[in-house]
Design a protein that fits this description.
- There is one protein chain.
- By secondary structure, the protein is α/β, with parallel strands linked by helices.
- The protein has 15 helices and 31 strands.
- The strands form 8 sheets. An 8-stranded parallel beta barrel has the order 12-13-16-19-20-21-22-23. A 6-stranded antiparallel sheet has the order 24-25-26-31-28-29, covered by helices on one side.
- The radius of gyration is 27 Å and the shape is elongated.
- It starts with 12 loop residues before the first strand and ends with a strand.
Length: about 675
């Protein structure tokens, strides 16, 4: 191999060009960076070359004659001063943070954590390496759907859990990207009316030491190792090239079917954990620049992620790392957007959250990213970590107040009409004042994190024994539910009650003002046997049980999404509730008697509520939404004229023929939608 030449200082990572490979590594405090070369399998170490070029904090070099397939690692020289935040150790081979493909399998047994003393053990034999890639993909005219937000229905799913037991798949496609791109998967999503798949992390991740010792895995994947690497775990063949090709095949087929692909991304921490964690990449390259360190204890990490460390995206290279990664997934992999885990980390300055943070501004002006759908999980564990409603305009946010209010109304004791109305009408108290739109509220009642929809109405206490944490992990209990005896039941009354509650909750999610999100499995009645934190279980507890699917519930959910698509009961604008020149109101809340709600009715006990929607989102005739959270049936007085029933959630498939006037009896624990003739 030829000697390294200085090369150029961009882009970061390894790029094939001009008959060789250009390498760029960021490190402000290193004194030298070595490029280490290996055979195709990642061992043995054949050559070390010092990067000869330096431009500010960027070290770079060009290797003539090299090309795609070259396996390499990095060694960083510099001070070992943990008390000052510096942990350079040239005995440790490091993974390029911009790696496009990772070679090797991480071996926890080879790790010897010595947080305050430099470890002289050379780890090159077992360390992860990067492979240079230069792969072209023919997208064959791929056209992202660019679904309008008002028409978007999100579906949160895990690649493996969704496809592992999906009927009609050959064994080699179960649990894979290609399984998710298959006709059975796409047929189900299209039948359901899903417009956007929000995938749990697919970037290559690491199973934590504790899980490996227990014989478990990080099934959810919120412990990212390769931010630019589709995980080979979900490919039909276990190599990086297959993972990239199969991921892109999946995206292309889903786009052809009119379905967008959004990725759950984890930029709040890395897989290196706390000060006892391994040297994989960032820690050894420039610890003080990559991580947030405790101000007066620089040998320890701020743990605002709950995973041992927190990335410092206030630093220029941290900011560039996120932007380069997002551009890669949109530009090279054609994804349509992102859901950001513990997203306040993205906007933190020295400590506090700032909705005008540099990263938000950079994304907004970037021509490649400006059109992507951006969804924040608006809380982290740092100071002032709860930031619901405080993200920039154009960002969507998971609305946990919607979730908690709906659970309290339908599963709790009592009920709060005012709170329910507020959530169904876009959570104006959260989003309207800062100039946001109702669609920026992501409305959901269950997600991957917590009980499934069926378990939500079936269990009061968590049952997480399979996680091997003595049932101490996850939320301790559900809200006070009133669905009957806990757990599995053969009592027809209990089962009927639970089924009604599932349908009522789905109706509120899909008909409310905002952007709805369904958790995969909610539509088939999937149970995790009461486990509300199965992050470490890659087995039948988390795999969707398609054989036991509730076909009536699937048809019911499809009926709801069809109603939303056709009528959009509550549209993408804020309602005033005030009469126009003709005395008509755009949205009026009523008691079952037809009388307007008095002040005491809004927050006093009450589980019945009606809404007259005078100007629905897609125009047309007025609508009437009737909600009965009580166990007993209730008569609702209707406005003058004839009404046609569009939804009755007490029915297994959500509909029965009815057209009439005067009044309508609404079954207990159900939702009805009427359209004026």
């Amino acid at each position: 191999m030829d000697e390294l030449k200085p090369g150029r200082a961009w882009p970061l990572g390894a790029s094939v060009r001009d008959g060789g490979v250009n390498f760029v590594v960021a490190s402000e405090h290193a004194s030298a960076i070595e490029l280490c070369l290996f055979d195709d399998e990642g061992k043995p170490e054949r050559q070390r070359l010092t990067l000869p070029g330096r431009s500010g904090d960027l070290w770079h070099g060009f290797l003539p004659g090299a090309g795609a397939g070259l396996v390499y690692g990095l060694r960083a020289h510099g001070p070992w001063r943990p008390e000052r935040g510096q942990r350079f150790n040239p005995h440790k081979l490091l993974l390029d943070p911009w790696a496009r493909e990772i070679v090797g399998r991480f071996d926890w047994a080879a790790e010897t954590p010595q947080p305050q003393a430099l470890d002289p053990h050379d780890n090159a034999a077992t360390a992860l390496k990067a492979r240079v890639v230069d792969d072209h993909w023919d997208w064959s005219g791929d056209r992202p759907p660019h679904t309008a937000l008002a028409d978007t229905v999100l579906y949160e799913a895990h690649v493996r859990a969704f496809t592992k037991q999906l009927p009609g798949l050959p064994d080699d496609l179960r649990g894979t990207y290609l399984g998710l791109a298959s006709a059975p998967a796409i047929d189900h999503l299209q039948r359901l009316g899903v417009t956007a798949l929000s995938l749990l992390p697919v970037q290559q991740h690491l199973d934590e030491r504790r899980l490996v010792q227990l014989g478990l895995v990080n099934h959810w994947g919120y412990n990212t190792l390769g931010f630019f690497c589709p995980s080979p775990r979900y490919a039909s063949r276990p190599d990086g090239r297959s993972a990239r090709d199969e991921f892109r095949t999946m995206v292309h087929r889903l786009h052809t079917a009119g379905i967008e692909v959004l990725l759950d991304v984890v930029f709040n921490h890395t897989a290196e954990s706390d000060e006892l964690g391994p040297f994989i990449s960032w820690r050894g390259l420039d610890n003080a620049n990559w991580y947030r360190l405790i101000e007066h204890q620089r040998n320890a990490y701020e743990n605002w992620s709950g995973c041992g460390n927190t990335l410092d995206l206030h630093q220029p290279r941290g900011l560039q790392f996120v932007l380069d990664c997002l551009r890669y997934w949109v530009g090279e992999m054609h994804v349509d957007g992102f859901r950001f885990d513990l997203a306040p980390v993205l906007g933190r300055g020295a400590q506090a959250f700032d909705r005008q943070a540099a990263l938000f501004k950079a994304i907004r002006q970037d021509p490649l990213l400006a059109g992507a759908k951006l969804i924040a999980e608006p809380w982290d564990l740092g100071p002032g970590g709860y930031q619901l409603g405080h993200f920039p305009r154009g960002w969507l946010e998971w609305n946990d107040r919607f979730r908690d209010t709906l659970r309290a109304f339908w599963l709790g004791h009592g009920g709060d009409r005012g709170a329910l109305a507020q959530r169904l009408a876009g959570s104006a108290d959260v989003f309207q004042a800062p100039g946001r739109t109702p669609l920026e509220s992501v409305n959901y009642v269950v997600s991957h994190d917590g009980f499934t929809l069926r378990d939500l109405v079936s269990y009061d206490q968590r049952h997480n024994e399979a996680n091997l944490e003595s049932n101490r992990d996850g939320h301790a209990h559900n809200l006070s539910w009133n669905a009957g005896a806990e757990g599995p039941s053969s009592d027809p009354a209990v089962l009927r009650n639970r089924a009604r509650l599932q349908r009522a909750l789905l109706a509120c999610v899909l008909l409310a003002q905002g952007t709805p999100m369904i958790a995969a499995g909610a539509e088939i009645g999937h149970t995790q046997q009461g486990n509300n934190n199965p992050y470490c279980l890659d087995n039948a507890i988390t795999w969707l049980d398609w054989a036991a699917a509730d076909e009536d519930l699937v048809a019911y959910t499809a009926h709801l999404t069809g109603l939303r698509r056709r009528l959009l009961p509550l549209g993408p604008r804020w309602y005033s509730g005030q009469p126009d020149a003709q005395g008509r109101v755009d949205l009026a809340w009523r008691l079952p008697s037809g009388a307007p709600l008095a002040a005491a009715d809004w927050h006093g006990p009450g589980r019945t509520l009606a809404a007259l929607i005078g100007a629905p989102g897609h125009g047309g005739a007025p609508l009437r939404l009737l909600i009965n959270g009580d166990e007993a049936d209730c008569d609702f007085e209707l406005d003058a004229g004839r009404w046609t029933l569009e939804l009755d959630s007490s029915q297994p498939r959500g509909w029965r023929p009815w057209r009439g006037e005067g009044s309508l009896r609404v079954a207990g624990r159900s939702v009805v939608l009427l359209r004026a003739d």
